[in-house]
Amino acid sequence: MSATGGGTRVLLIEDNADDAELLVREFRRHEFKVETKVAPSLHVARCLLRDESWDVVLSDYNLPNTHFSDIASAVKAADRDMPIVVVSGAVGEEIAVSLLREGASDLVLKHNLSRLVPAVVRELAAAEQNHARRASEERYRQIVEATSDWIWETDAEHRIAFTAESGEQAEWSDPLRSVGRTLWEACGIDIERDPHWRGHKRVLDAREPFRHFRFAFRAPAGGEFHLVMTGAPVFNRGGAFLGYRGVASDETLIVETYLRAERAEARLKAGLLPVFRTPG
């Protein structure tokens, strides 16, 4: 049995053809457009899950010689966000709880099919949200891997809460990945004696966004590094301050090149470097 027309794709895992037809009729009664196929066994379900794409699975939990956990595993292997709505006869509370623990999104009883379409609509919406969240996380991961910047977050006390760098860990990044410390503590700065950092902390305490805050520090392995940082405050829906989120870039090569050029120019002016003249 298959309903065509490009509607929501529903896989029915049900060994009773009459019960499967009842589910399709319930969709039609609500004018909910679906495209369905019936899998009378776990083997057929696995083949259909492998070969075709589905939006939602409706499954009887009591297929012959089949445990529901095997059905749930097969569905989640195909798409971990795909909802599974169990449609079955009367079940006890203990079985209902077990089904939800094993991966069922909802349970609809066959004598109360009026709940079927609302349950499917709700679970499809939840699955769409999960897909969108995972897509957003994947985009973020790809951005982190593609950028040369250091991505960071702090908590409400300005302590480092999260950091991420792409590719190989930068030589300078180790002390700045010290979760639980402020950035100036990680850099070994006495903020009471450093007006540059003290001014930056005033901006943070005022919960204002900042751009191009530049600082230098010496890494434990030696070598001075120069970074530039941009950040924005983060608030929850209630307006409570959560911390800062932003990026930092390594400007060490730029700064060193500039300093070498300055030193060369100073030595040239002082007559310490030979002047090469083009033959006239």
Automatic annotation (TrEMBL):
Residue limits of the Response regulatory domain? Answer: 9-125
Q: What is this protein called?
A: Response regulator
Q: What SMART domains does its record include?
A: REC (SM00448)
Q: Which residues carry this modification: 4-aspartylphosphate?
A: 60
Stored SUPFAM superfamilies: CheY-like, PYP-like sensor domain (PAS domain)
Among InterPro entries, the record links this protein to: Bact_response_regulator, CheY-like_superfamily, PAS, PAS-like_dom_sf, Sig_transdc_resp-reg_receiver
Q: Which domain of life is it from?
A: Bacteria
Phosphoprotein is among the record's keywords: yes
Question: What are the protein's UniProt keywords?
Answer: Phosphoprotein
Q: In the UniProt record, does the keyword Phosphoprotein occur?
A: yes
CDD domains attached here?
Answer: REC
